[in-house]
Design goal:
Layout (H helix, E strand, L loop, with lengths): L1 H22 L3 E7 L7 H15 L4 E6 L10 H6 L5 E4 L10 H4 L9 H10 L2 H10 L3 E8 L6 E3 L13 E3 L2 H9 L3 E3 L3 H9 L5 E2 L4 H4 L10 E4 L8 E7 H5 L3 H35 L3 E4 L2 H21 L1 H24 L7 H5 L6
Parallel strand pairs: 1-2, 1-3, 6-7, 6-8, 9-11
Antiparallel strand pairs: 3-10, 4-10, 5-8, 5-9
Amino acid sequence: MKRFLTLLMAVALCVFMTTSAFAAKTYNWKMVTTWSTGIPWHQTVLHFADTVKKMTNGEMEIKVFPAGSIVPAFQVFDAVRNGVAEMGHDWPGYWKGKDEAFVAFASVPFGLNNIEYTIWLMNAGGMQLAEEIYGKYGLVPLLGGNSGQEMGFFTKKPLTKVEDLKGMKVRTVGWAADILKDMGVSVSPLPGGEIYLAFERGVLDSAEFSVPFITYPMGFQEIAKNVMVPGWHQPGVQLMFTVNKKAWDSLPEHLKTALKVASYETQLWDIARSEAGNAEAIKKYKQEGVTFNKLDDNSLNELRKTTKKYLDGLRAKNPNLDKVLGSQDEFVKNYSEWKDLRSGVSAYPYEDYIKGKHYE
């Protein structure tokens, strides 16, 4: 009996230790981002981390480190790749130096808007392509939010023709900068924190930065009361979470699923937060006397032609980019028929609709 009790106690202790070890298993990850705490996308990241913690009942906790706290903003990609942090959050266009194809997952002039990016990524092969390209760098991508169409270009005089920008010093970045240069416009890719002062001092004649609710606090409306719209240069601002592949592989399946589901929820949360914020920002702009001037059809056509020629040149040099943009082109072609058929019914105020405002 004594030997039996001893054996029973040993088995019980073994079971207790095994159960305790299992119960105590938690995952504490670090996430580095390209955003300072003052940028609204920092809130997107905090929302994601909070969602993961709640979904996993604390089994997984992600601590967010804004730009500069562990690594500078533009070292986030390599920091996650090299295991300095398990996760990152960014705008994929920052990594065009790694592969031009990353820009196509961020924003394409005259390309996908926030809803279309979400459909393409989730249901038309976009994420599979992202997994393929990010995978070459030891990373796993997850949806990270989309803030919608960026504002147009602030100008002191009302402008409706793209030719009016010739001879002016314009602030923009990325593919839009190259496209405008090809049309004879002088471009300066100043970082966000330097734009206001340059604009105020006349170093810049025109400037854009981001979507309305992010741009509004920067105060460009204090310098220029006109905006050239639409924001053709970035119809959608797609963001991405990245996960170190080794860290991802170490997770049990239910936590991988939790991260994916949290990324889907964050994508939709960011769209809703941003679009509501953009609408409120436009009201504030108008209250402060800002006028929005639409580009004429000829200007939009010329910009579209120049954009196609520019992107065709890039695609000829980069097979990955050609593959990604080819997938987007196919999606646009298929989706456009439904867009056309559903047009004419849009949620405008009754009085505006009756007066003829039918199309989004």
